[in-house]
Amino acid sequence: MLTFAFRKILTLLGTMIGIAALTFVITNIAPGDPARLVAGPNATEDMVATIRSEYGLDKSLPEQFIVYMGDLVRGDLGTSIVTTRPVLEEVMRYAPATLELVFVAMFLGIVIGVPLGMLSAVYKDGPLDQVTRIFSISGVALPAFWFGIILQLMFAVDLEWLPVSGRLPLVTRPPEFVTGLLLVDSLIAGKFSTFWVSLQHIILPAIVLSFPCLASILRVNRAEMIEVLQSDYIVAARAHGISSFRIVALYALKNAMLPTLAMIGLRFGWMLGSTVLVETVFDWPGIGLYAVSSALSSDFKPVVGVTLMIGFFFIVANTLVDLAYAWIDPRLRKA
Amino acid sequence: FERTDKGNVIVFGGRQAIPVLDPHIRYDWSTRMMQQAVYDGLVKYEGDPAEIKPWLAEKWETSEDGKTWTFHLVKNAKFHNGDPVNAEAVRYSFERGLKLNKGVAWMLKDFLAPEGISVVDDYTVKFELKGPYTPFLSFLPWWYIVNPAQVKAHEVDGDYGQKWLTDNEAGSGPFKLGRWEPNVLYEAEAVTDYWKGWPQGEANRPAGVIFKIIREPAAQKAALQRGEVDIVEGLTPDDYVQIARAKGIAIEDHKGMTTFGIKFNTQQGPTADINLRKAIAYAMDYDALIQVYNGAASLETSPIPDAMRGHIDVPGIPRKDLAKAKEYLAKSGYPNGGITLPYVHVAGLEEARRIGLVLLDSLKPLNINVEIKPEQWPNMVANGSKVETSPSMTSVYTTPVSTDPDAVAYQYHKNSWGQYFAMMFYDNPKVTEMIDKARSSSNWDERAKLYADIQTQIVADQPEVFGMLQNRRWARRDYLQGFQFSPVRFTGEVDLYPLWVKSE
Amino acid sequence: MTALLDIKNYRLDIGTFDGPVHVLKGINLTVNRGDTVGIVGESGSGKTVLVRSVLGIGPRNAKVVEGSISFDGQDITNLPEKDWTKIRGIRISMIFQDPMTYLNPLFTVGRQISDVIAAHEKAAGTGVSSKAARRTRTEDLLDQVGLPNPSMLFSQYPHQLSGGMRQRILIAMALAGKPDILIADEPTTALDVTVQAQVLDLINSLVEKLNLTVIMISHDIGAIATVAKRCAVMYKGEIVEQGMTQDILNRPQHEYTQRLLAAVPDIDIAPEKVAAEATAAKPSKPGHLLEAIDLKKVYRSQSGADFTAVNSLSLSVKTGEIFGVVGESGSGKSTLARMLMRLIEPTSGDIIFDGQNISGLSGEPLRKMRRHMQFVFQNPHSALNGRHTIGDAIGEPLRIQTNMSRRDIEARAEALLDIVQLPKMFKYRYPHELSGGQKQRVCIARAIALNPRLLILDEPTSALDISVQAQVLDFLQELRSELNLTYVFISHNLAVIRQICDRTIVMKRGEIVEQGDTEQIFMAPREDYTKALIESGRKTSQAANLQV
Amino acid sequence: MDTPAEASRPLTFRERHASQIRQWRLYAHMFRKSFSSMLGLTLVVLFLLLAAFGPLIVPYPEAASGAINMSAKLQPPSSTYWFGTDEMGADIFSRVIIGARTSLWIGVVITGLAAIVGITLGIIAGYRGGWVRAVIMRITELFLAVPGLALALAIVAALGPGITNCVLALAIVWWPGYVRLVEAKTLSIKEELFIESARSIGAKTPWILWHHILPNCMSPIIVKMSMDMGMAILSAASLGFIGLGAQPPSPEWGSMISVARTYMPDWWWYSLFPGAAIFLTVLGFNLLGDGLRDILDPRSRDR
Ligand SMILES: Nc1ncnc2c1ncn2[C@@H]1O[C@H](COP(=O)(O)OP(=O)(O)OP(=O)(O)O)[C@@H](O)[C@H]1O
Ligand SMILES: Nc1ncnc2c1ncn2[C@@H]1O[C@H](COP(=O)(O)OP(=O)(O)OP(=O)(O)O)[C@@H](O)[C@H]1O
Ligand SMILES: [Mg+2]
Ligand SMILES: [Mg+2]
Q1: How does it sit in the membrane (chain D) (predicted)?
Q2: C327 Cβ below 6 A of ligand 2
């Protein structure tokens, strides 16, 4: 078990370094000059040079890369040239907002997607199946940014049921920082009104983010359910007189959950990527927004940092999925 | 606005974040708006037309040769932690700005060395310049005074407290910092006993101001209409028209100093040909430029904005005239057109993009194709810093940081090559000479004449399509009072100090 | 007394894209309490569909055209789903063919059985008993089917058990509801020869102990003879013959039954005709065509442990003979065959083909060499690429190894189809449109396309029905004399080996335990292993049971 | 039994290809039975038609090349401007229709490039095994560990906005999906007997890859490509929305929305129609892919 954990950590480290190298190279192939941006429009050449040398941008690219990798090994993601702060610190500040959003969206996706998938598998080719099929594929096909705007207009601007954007109303002070997830922190602090308003704020972006994920969870669950329901052991269970409900809800679901879990792991990473869009639309102060604004100002250290962070969460999520697999599937449980 | 137990908090909705508050490092509009709220300078720009008002300095004098400036400070000014604002603080602040060599440093560094600043007595400070420099005073409103004691206390590795000042302040301004949630909101709390007092009266004084980041215009509009914010910037021209009709909303619409021009690369490529440049300038649909802003703009009549001293209406500045355009085209190296010219604009700048479309449409009759290319600002500046990489046409907005005509004229000086506003690589020795002469002269009449000649000559050389001056606009709730416009501020920037809420 | 199960003139269609398929055509079958009925018939004759219909779990788009099934006086032909709960698994239960796929891999064995018990208790309306009570009952059942250490088994997962154990678990499950009828659908087909006998014994003993009524399906007539007193023969959806097993075996009436019985090879009969032909061929071509010296294959498993599949094995095959390789499953027969073909690399040792050492060969020379030796695989269903037509499949070796023109290849493919006695038309068909025997012929055609000198046949008939097996074996012998081939023939079926091989080696755990003339080995086995092998072969050999 | 004369008669096309014809008829039959598949097909065909003939049928084809008409800007939908006009007075209907061509191009290039690279690498990795596979799969996993959109964003941000860069960036992040799909498929096909059979008759590796492995991987690839057409269009639109995709005056739906969102909600039609166009196109390709999966992927086939 220990060697297993050790190996996992080792691959994780390897992948992280790989991602860092990949994004670093990709983002630095272009001629952009972020020092020029932060120096201000009128800055003279020597002022720009001051900033360049301060951030090591005057070095050659391979040198910069070596420095960056060296820092990375020590847990330093470099410094954002725009905000002059360590990227790690900033990513840590913005990550909870993103994670909270992703968790809520994932929750919605699973809670709605799995039962719907089950139902449409049981009533395969029936009207319910056709409707959920179009519904779920619509989920994947809807442009998140567009859908977000439309929801915003409908529920926030027009009906005024929900807030337009942000995580909290202006005057509401965030609860004391424990996990960084407002929904959790406000409960810990016992501030139910804060919990309530932050729930209102998260609803729309979470729906937008969860929709495609819900859809693919539904699709995978349905497909797997159909296959499992045709499998021999389900036939056998039926032949042995086990009730249909029990077969579907217990036996088949557990088997169908394996690929569904894999999809959830995949979608987790995908969601982290899509927050780039959703956070832009809903002004959600997470790492997606941070990445976009950094990318738009050619400030690449944060872009690399965020990509790494997303990769990290993604790998962690998939490791958890692997563990869940082993927990569900006894065949994978051998020493 | 938000009602709190301490009073009303005014909410400003803006699109641009404030990554670094340090007054000697950055000075874009959102940053400067907050800096102006928490810091004081020796002097301050106010009013339209902009005038330099005494602030921390109650009076000042200049030596005969224009090289020595002596400032006498007010005696009651206090930093937020209670320390007095004295001559040493002023000296330290200027030294800090110059030594860091970032942000505002470029304004003074060629004329002022850190050693040139000296403390005469507790409330008197003296600047000795390397040479006479008439625009000196016009730059001072951009230099804020920080509290040396606080800064030194937070210094790490001799960084002049840069790290700390990123999201803290050590100022004496009318506000002090409250909540600081990067990328979300920034709060400034009013200083109860601000040394200069409050223009709207203590009773009307707000408890503070919140600068809320709202990136989407649609969300900004919604927030304004719902009264969640009191004033917003950065709506589209059409939005302003639309929202002006809504109840309870007033539009602030003022003539600004930001010029828009389509800069040609006058040294290389097709646009090195003056006839082609003229042809383009005459083909341009200037009316459409104004239409892009729904009328809230005025055409440039000279390189120097109207609100600036020394401005003249240059006669014969090109307006749309297809016949003339074709005439010039015939004289150029491309008599039948058939070329494609790039038009580069800053990615995300909506109006610049639309003007690109206008240009594209305007040049169709000349059989010239336009390729609209958005670029990230740093890339655009990087490309524009060299003749070889500078595109044929670049759209550039320029906001002069002082009211002195030199601020604009110097853009056409050969020394400015490499700067973003000098992407045309304009080279006319006569003009260069005149600019040098004007900037060192302290006789206004002489300067005015020189600037008139400079303007005429530049227009004749057509290094750019002279575009328009866009109006500065904000949409605010009508209960928000005290709004004061001054053209020398940046687009979007509002003086938060005099604002107050009139409750019905 | 009414019959327990009465199937009257039962006709069933299955709707497919090409229109309805008449799967069952007027089945009449009665089963009385205490009967043991066997159903025998070739693959696809409708056995499974028939018994599943009895349980109400027939194919999805099946339609009863005519007739009825009644159980204990109750018509169950079109019983609604909710009424089935009182019958299915309780009064009629079933044992399935493949014990692995019929157990849910994610639940413990104990859980699955006690769930069945709970379901039955619920259906009976007696109220579900406690977990502990169910556990006791489950362990009783496990004990009853002869599984050791039931309390440990209870919390094990299917993948931790062997095939025979799993089949016993399935039987335990089927017995959980104390059924009136137990249906066994080919309960032994997926099992090893030795285990087969054990499971059949178990069923036999249960029938006696619990006085069960049993319907057992098999295409293995020997298995049927072991268990069933009465027997029905199905052919193409019809019951062509039924009666006492004894009678049918001794006096088959229907033509198909006669064919079926004739096809069963008899381990105890020394084949004369074949042996004679082989001896005739021998002297004409002396010398050794293929030799293996000290061959060894070591597999390294993921956990790092070494496993020696073939160990220091030497053999030599004379030109023109049929060389038999026999051994139990896992003894390394296929591994050996693949090494001889150089399809897998031997860990050490040499292979000499026609005087040339081919163990070091690679690239072009190896490809050239392959013209002379060919392989026929165990499973014809997966040895053909489903996306190629038969014509392509047969032409492929020619296209690879020769530069014949397209037209010539077409012609040759047609000729080859002729040789393997298939219509020319078949070259436009796809593998899935052919029966197993036909596919195996295509595989052979493909193997002989390049006129090889040696054919290695790895259990070429074990995936086929017995009647088809006989055809293929006959055909192989014809072919050999026609084309002057040498065979290496692998099988675990001793009867087959005896029927066609000249010389044989017996393998056990990768080593040769005995070798010599086939007849000699069968008449006077020297090793205990060989004796045991022959004995268990004899026991399951269909012919052995005919004499019961 | 055939008489000898009959047997030697050359077979007609129909007879020779009876199996294929039946197969295709079966596909068509199954496909027709599903409403959603037919809907998908209809949408895709419509989209392809518009991409082919769009510029010929729209009322204001010049709107796609940047013609402006400031006097008619931001007009609501009417009989002259079916979908209204944009901020420069261009006809949104014309731009949306002509945008189909841009989208088609985007989808085809991204999916095509990704598929070519991904299939090649995937087959090599799956078949060769060993360190070749290890290297290819490590790199693939690396790419897969970063959500594509985030990576594409970084790439375009570095290369600079524009449709070519955007397509390039998406192609760069897209191929790993194919590698994984094809590698897994190849691994399982490699174990099939018919591969060994082909080796035993002396087939070389390229022959086996081309004639045996690739055709057997084709069904999932076709399904994935159909789905990816939609997803690629959507992703390109997303980048366009962030402001990094296609540039004016090229009519690309995502960048149209990017501009249009600042005109919400008062000028709702501006973003509504391009958004609906993206949605319907992507929906079409996905429904089609889903329908294809049902008929091509034997796992979900039950007849
Ligand atoms: N779901 C189905 N759809 C169409 N045809 C089917 C279906 N199930 C079975 N058949 C057909 O019904 C016939 C009888 O099949 P069945 O499974 O009963 O054969 P079997 O005698 O059990 O064969 P085996 O010995 O191979 O198990 C076969 O021709 C088969 O193709
Ligand atoms: N690729 C492999 N890796 C590891 N072990 C293997 C591999 N192939 C075969 N073996 C093992 O080698 C042994 C011999 O296998 P082989 O297939 O040769 O047996 P066999 O005699 O042909 O059996 P059967 O009658 O079941 O076909 C078996 O125990 C098998 O598990
Ligand atoms: Mg069967
Ligand atoms: Mg074998």
Answers
A1: Multi-pass membrane protein
A2: yes
Q: Is residue D138 part of a domain?
A: yes
pLDDT of C291 higher than 90:
no
- For residues A279, A280, A284, A289, the Cα torsion angle rounded to the nearest 10 degrees is 80
How many CB atoms sit inside 10 A of residue C413's CB?
Answer: 25
Q: Does residue D34 have a pLDDT over 50?
A: yes
With the C-alpha atoms ordered D227, D232, D238, D240, is the resulting torsion angle positive or negative? negative
Q: Name the residue facing D286 among A140, A226, A276 (closest C-beta).
A: A140
Please name the amino acid found at residue C433: E
Q: What percent of chain D has pLDDT over 90?
A: 10
D129 lies in which domain range? Answer: 50-61+81-296
Q: Mark yes or no for CB contact B350/D262 under 8 Å.
A: yes
Q: Identify whether the C-beta of residue C34 lies closer than 8 Å to the C-beta of residue C213.
A: yes
Domain count, chain D: 1
Beta bridge partners of C123: none
Tens digit of each residue's pLDDT (9 = 90 or more) over C394-406: 999 998 888 888 8
- Chain A CB contacts of C102 under 8 Å are 232-233, 235-236
Report the CATH number at residue A252. Answer: 1.10.3720.10
Helices D92-128 & D268-296, crossing angle to 10 degrees?
30
Name the residue range of residue A235's domain: 87-333
Q: Answer whether B466's CB lies under 8 Å from B303's CB.
A: yes
Query: CA D136 → CA B43, C223, C389, D140, D221, distances in Å?
Result: 65, 52, 33, 6, 19
Q: Which two tokens stand for residue A38?
A: 């932060």
What the block records as the tokens of C493 is: 């079926």
Residues B88, B85: Cα–Cα separation, whole Å = 8
Note the pLDDT tens digit of each residue in D184-232: 888 888 888 888 888 888 888 888 998 888 888 888 888 888 888 888 9
pLDDT at C278 over 80: no
Residue D180 lies in a domain: yes
ipTM score: 0.81
Interface of B with D in 186-245 (CB under 8 A): 216-218, 236, 238-239, 242
In chain C the domains, ranked by start, together with CATH numbers, are: 5-263 (3.40.50.300), 264-285+320-346+361-372+452-548 (3.40.50.300), 383-451 (no CATH)
Whether residues C94 and A244 touch (CB distance < 8 A) is answered with no
pLDDT tens string C314-367 = 888 888 888 999 887 778 888 899 888 888 888 888 888 888 888 877 778 888
> Which ligand 2 atom sits nearest the alpha carbon of residue C327?
21
Task: Tell me which residue has its CA closest to atom 10 in ligand 2.
Answer: C309
Quote the ligand 1 centre to C53 CA distance (angstroms).
Answer: 12
Total domains in chain A come to 1
pTM listed for this prediction: 0.83
Q: Read off the CATH number of the domain in which D269 is found.
A: 1.10.3720.10
Which of B357, B360, B364, B372 is the best residue to mutate to test the D interface, defined by the most D CB atoms within 10 Å of its own CB?
B357
Q: Is residue D33 one of the residues assigned to a domain? A: no
β B175-181/C454-458 pair status = unpaired
Q: What is the mean pLDDT of residues B94-120?
A: 89
Give which of B82, B197, B193, B86 is closest to B145, Cα–Cα: B86
Q: Which residues of D touch C383 (CB under 8 A)?
A: 193-194, 196-197
A299 within a domain of the structure (yes/no): yes
Token output for B424 = 């045309």
Is D93 inside a domain boundary? yes
Q: Check if the beta carbon of residue C96 is closer than 8 Å to that of residue C102.
A: yes
Judged by CB atoms closer than 8 Å, whether chains meet at C401 and D16 is answered as: no
Assess if residue A302 is contained within a domain. yes
Give the span between the Cα atoms of A289 and A287, in whole angstroms. 5
Residue A276: inside a domain, yes or no?
yes
Task: Give the position of tokens 């091509």.
Answer: D296
- Does D17 contact C at CB distance below 8 Å? yes
- Asked, for residue A215, whether it belongs to a domain, the answer is yes
